[in-house]
């Protein structure tokens, strides 16, 4: 109809339009799970080590090891770690 403008389709909150064909689709970053005492919980993913995980949260490797009772910085994929709150 001449002179009439098209109204864009509005999606309900939380619903998004599909990505254009050929566009890269990325997964959202995992949201840390709060743990008692202000700590967070992190599940080790492929290609992560204790150093990279500690850097992600702004804490020292030794702090993560102590909180989790680890005697070695070795971690395994799928392992659940408590992450202390960062020092202020």
Account of the 3D structure:
The chain is of the alpha+beta class. Helix content is 18%, strand content 11%. It has a 3-stranded antiparallel beta sheet. The chain is elongated.
Give the topology, please.
Blueprint: E1 33-34, E2 40-43, H1 50-57, H2 61-68, E3 80-83
Antiparallel strand pairs: 1-2, 2-3
Number of helices: 2
**Main beta-sheet annotation:** 3 strands, antiparallel
Give the overall shape: elongated
Uncertain regions spanning at least 5 consecutive residues: none
Q: Would you list the SSEs in sequence order as H and E? A: EEHHE
Distance between the termini: 62 Å
Number of strands: 3
Helix content range: 10-25%
Strand order of the largest sheet: 1-2-3
Task: Report strand %.
Answer: 5-15%
Average pLDDT reading: 78
Task: State Rg.
Answer: 21 Å
**Class of secondary structure makeup:** alpha+beta
Fill in the keyword field for this structure.
alpha+beta, single chain, 18% helix
Quick overview:
With 88 residues, this protein is of the alpha+beta class. Helix content is 18%, strand content 11%.
